[in-house]
């Protein structure tokens, strides 16, 4: 079963992750960290029995990612959220096509039957720095894909992950991906439009979550494949794109899986349960 980990070539090329890649209508073996994030979040949730009828999920800063449609296709009820339109326009997310103003853009790959999508998906505006109490303990799972590094500072990003746990029912799961600084555990980008989390920041977050009673395990393996040694430099070619340079730092993605304190432990589920074959 997946645990929190750094994006690596071996992880993305695993059969389970490649199956998700094809289901998202991406070309196979495209070594891109954004695809890894989508596959990682989906596999983590599927393994834990979250992507099925009767489950309710909350997506933060969903933009135009395909996760909402895929999870609705699998029967889960989804509340998709994104930043208020005015703030998104100020940050440039609207002009770059990375913002959702309603549900229209969330099924643009045709992953979910339109009637089922409209039945299972609702959209709300939400500020990740100020999560409303109306979401408290309403969801079986929550997720965000490369979003909380854009909240203004390291501190705000780490606080969001902790605050988002309020939205879960006891025993529910949060899965998040974000930027990870491979170059330094000292120097980094600590504030601004995009911050870069260091190992020590993630370790601090893990300690805080455990102190609050939540469960999180992590594998710090960094990978030694070709794509793990290849750095995509600006302007990015987007072909082999697991490691990128941002300012003077080499950066990749990291995924975090957190189980909220309380509740009954979900029985792990094989992919066969979700893909119509024996697991």
Structure characterization notes:
With 279 residues, the protein is α/β, with parallel strands linked by helices. It has a single domain (4-259), classed as Rossmann fold (3-Layer(aba) Sandwich), CATH 3.40.50. It has 10 helices and 10 strands. Helix 4 links the parallel strand 2 and strand 3. Helix 2 (15-23) packs across helix 3 and helix 7 (154-164) packs parallel to helix 8 (199-211). The longest helix is centred in the first third of the chain and has 15 residues, at 33-47. The two termini are 13 Å apart. 45% of the residues are buried.
In short:
With 279 residues, the chain is α/β, with parallel strands linked by helices. It has one domain: Rossmann fold. It is 29% helix and 21% strand.
Question: What are the defining features of this structure?
Answer:
single chain, 279 residues, alpha/beta, Rossmann fold, 10-stranded mixed sheet, globular
